[in-house]
Amino acid sequence: MKRRELLALAGVLPAWAQAADSSMTLPGMDLHDPFIVTDTASKTYWLFTKNHPSFSGQKAIGVMAYSSRDLKHWNKPELVFQLPAGTWANDGCWAPEVHHWRGKWYLFVTVHNESLPLAQPSPVPGQKTYRRSTVLAVADQPNGPFTLVRDGEPVVSKDLMTLDGTLYVDPAGKPWMVYAHEWLQLRVGAFAAVPLDDELRATAPPRELFRGSASPAAKPQQGQGIIVTDGPQLYRTADGSLHMLWSSWGEDGYFQTLSRSRSGDLFGPWEHLPVWLAKGSGHGMLFRTLEGGWMLVVHRPFKNARGKLYDVRERSNAFEILRQRIDLDLDSAPVPPATQKIGH
């Protein structure tokens, strides 16, 4: 390792000197479904997304990770997971998420194989059902390399079209995977949760949380009654209420919204709040900065997506978007929040 790199890792170089080695900013980083891990030990942000060979230099179906010290200057991404040959899946690696659990780092990622049809036909004319599932991989460090767990066995039944799995740990310390149940199989997409053991294996059948139609903001698409659900993320505020950040399609295109369980329980009852961020914004997640504040990252637009950053404030029972950080994401067409505050 070069002396400059060693000094940067040790935090000896000033911010401007560290940034000099970084050659990318968010407008030049093609990414979908961004997920950011804040590694306080190394003072590094890791941004995970599906592998793009033109960016990582690695031709693989997998996951790549950008790294940054300041959320503005990003290093060229590295391939951190590659879908092994011989597994049932042959495409995807959508919506990668990395979570710390019992001393290890687990990658949740969605893969599929359109040549493996499911017995249950799609209720949507002209569509088909096929194997699509969230699988797990594990590593010792947040930036991998990640190794496939249980040979790519899906967390829930292979007969269910599932995607965008996320780890949720309840107040008793019990892990769950919350995920989207695909509209291709239901017409009206849903969110569900499956209980896990300490090895992150399912211990019981999944239970549905709610359908996308429960939110007044989600509108049927394509004249076929389709309602999309994707990108669930779960966060608890100081009053103990549980919030789910998720995305769908509405009158203003792809959007980011929140639902809230006032009971604090994963199974609600859930109330569905107004659109939080619109105009093609979605599949976001909240993360803590190195300074301890909350930020939101989303992608926008849906096609040819780029990462966008927003400052967020946590109140006793609500999250509030304060402003878009155009000083960091360099967005030439910033989008204000659809509502200034979520909650009462």
UniProtKB/TrEMBL annotation:
Q: Is Signal one of the keywords?
A: yes
State the UniProt keywords alphabetically: Glycosidase, Hydrolase, Signal
Cell cycle keyword on record: no
Give a GO molecular function annotation for the protein.
Answer: hydrolase activity
Which segment of the chain is annotated as a signal peptide? 1-19
InterPro entries assigned to the protein according to its UniProt record, in alphabetical order: Glyco_hydro_43 (IPR006710), Glyco_hydro_beta-prop_sf (IPR023296), Glycosyl_Hydrlase_43 (IPR051795)
Which family is this sequence assigned to? Belongs to the glycosyl hydrolase 43 family.
The name of this protein is: Glycoside hydrolase family 43 protein
Q: Which organism is it from?
A: Pelomonas parva
